[in-house]
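sry for the spam today, last one i promise. struct tokens for design, 191 residues
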């Protein structure tokens, strides 16, 4: 067997061995999930080496998706924001990324909290080609389990009032009926 044969191909989103896992990386959150249409994704906590993949998804994202996620037309992905996306402490700030077999990052969910705080705010984006097959629900469930395991008590969410997909997703996931103010809906769920 030659060297090349000895090294198995990396599963999507996995190694290459050179892609360092930061201290505190919770490998136990890695898993493969099969979606309702039979496609599989590999889900794992975000790492700094994901910057390129997330930048690419941002570049390819449609304006409506970015607007629904950031509440502003044409949000910018500057270096500071990208750095914050991929550097988390895995305790008060956590993001889970779903990778397709072709290694594209097709979904990401995160919570943003602060040290000592029992609640954190979630955000989620799913690639349009991967919607309505349960990916957001799966990521949200995994995120809630991870939050609970880290001592958080509540997840909160903000979304634009007319974002029916998000409203339905959160209602189905057990978030309480939202309060709406200035076009933004706010809801939460105990974890
Ligand atoms: C909202 C969003 C995350 C949903 O992702 P998804 O993977 O399609 O969601 P799921 O497949 O897990 O759907 C779960 C439930 O939500 C509801 N839902 C999802 N999309 C919906 C839509 N377009 N219209 C109505 N209900 C919808 C359904 O009840 C669905 O269950 P069902 O498919 O069994 O009927 C996705 O549309 C998205 O990325 N939107 C842009 C970003 C965004 O709006 N983020 C929110 C602010 S952070």
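last one done:
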């Amino acid at each position: 067997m030659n060297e090349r044969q000895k090294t198995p191909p990396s599963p999507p989103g996995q190694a290459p061995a050179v892609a360092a896992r930061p201290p505190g990386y919770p490998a136990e959150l890695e898993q493969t999930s099969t979606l309702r249409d039979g496609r599989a994704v590999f889900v794992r906590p975000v790492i700094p080496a994901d910057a390129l993949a997330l930048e690419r998804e941002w570049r390819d994202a449609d304006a409506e998706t970015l607007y629904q996620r950031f509440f502003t037309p044409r949000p910018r992905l500057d270096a500071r924001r990208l750095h914050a996306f991929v550097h988390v402490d895995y305790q008060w700030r956590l993001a889970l990324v779903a990778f397709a077999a072709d290694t594209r990052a097709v979904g990401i969910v995160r919570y943003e909290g602060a040290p000592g705080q029992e609640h954190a705010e979630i955000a989620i984006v799913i690639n349009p080609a991967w919607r309505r097959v349960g990916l957001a629900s799966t990521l949200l469930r995994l995120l809630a389990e991870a939050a609970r395991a880290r001592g958080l008590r509540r997840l909160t969410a903000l979304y634009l009032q007319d974002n029916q997909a998000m409203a339905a997703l959160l209602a189905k996931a057990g978030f309480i009926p939202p309060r709406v103010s200035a076009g933004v809906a706010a809801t939460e769920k105990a974890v």
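Residues 29-152 form a domain with the Aminopeptidase fold (CATH 3.40.630.30). ok im logging off now
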